[in-house]
Amino acid sequence: MATQNLTYATVPTQFITAANGIKFAYRRLGAKKNIPVIYFNHLTSNLDNCDPRIMDSMAAQYEIISFDYRGVGETSGEDAKSIQEMAKDSLAFIQALGYEKIDIMAFSMGGFIAQELMEIAPNLVRKIILAGTGPRGGKGISDVVKLTYWDIFKGYLNFVDPKFFLFFNSSSSGKSAAREFLKRIKERTENRDIPARLKTLQIQLKAIATWGHEEPADLSKFTLPVLVINGDNDRMVPTPNSYDLANRLPNAQLHIYENAAHGAIFQHHDDFVKRALIFFAS
């Protein structure tokens, strides 16, 4: 499908049925490549939660593909109960598309899933960006449950999307970045995706809590190039986890944005895209 004149706000949603019987909803932007960039998104995200500035800018040089996890948005099936199950679903989706090698750009829970994907398909990933995320068993990862529910409550009281608090600092620059990001993800006005259900939130939070208490993985065996990125004040997946990831992955580089939180790549989307393009091209 030609997408030269399309943007992430206008590109159609496509569907493909994988060998596991799940019908995946996905969006593909940019000229078709042998090695695409697969975007793994955050907790309760659907296709509309991808930042269009990042997706459009990446698509200028790469084919980038976003998708709904099982049971989320327009993807069929019941919600996966564990991070490992989500990884198996993701592998089924990638295989259905016919790719034998991919690059990954993963944010938050998407980074958890991507790490488990590398465990079960160690030769699949060429390069990976891990943003706002951490390793299995990482310090404070299991605390995301209570933090998420608290910020959902704050969002309800303040009539704003909880991501206003979950992803950004309370500084003036953080609040400004939050407003701009929340405006951007509403740019698509037609054929929007189905919002995640409360059940999905509960199941995914339980999966994250479990993963956060599991035994750490041996990350030293992953020698592929890795770019680890975060803000210096990530409350959801505490920033020390990014340092931990970079230290444990043999071929990793690390960048920490100052005065930024969990959604640092959205607050600094222009700079992030420049770094991502250089990383994938190098």
TrEMBL record:
- Pfam families to which the protein is assigned, alphabetical: Abhydrolase_1
Q: What InterPro entries does UniProt report for this protein, alphabetically?
A: AB_hydrolase, AB_hydrolase_1, AB_hydrolase_fold
What residues does the AB hydrolase-1 domain cover?
37-268
> What are the UniProt keywords, alphabetically?
Hydrolase
Q: Name one GO molecular function term.
A: hydrolase activity
**Domain of life where this protein originates:** Bacteria
- What name does UniProt use for this protein? Alpha/beta hydrolase
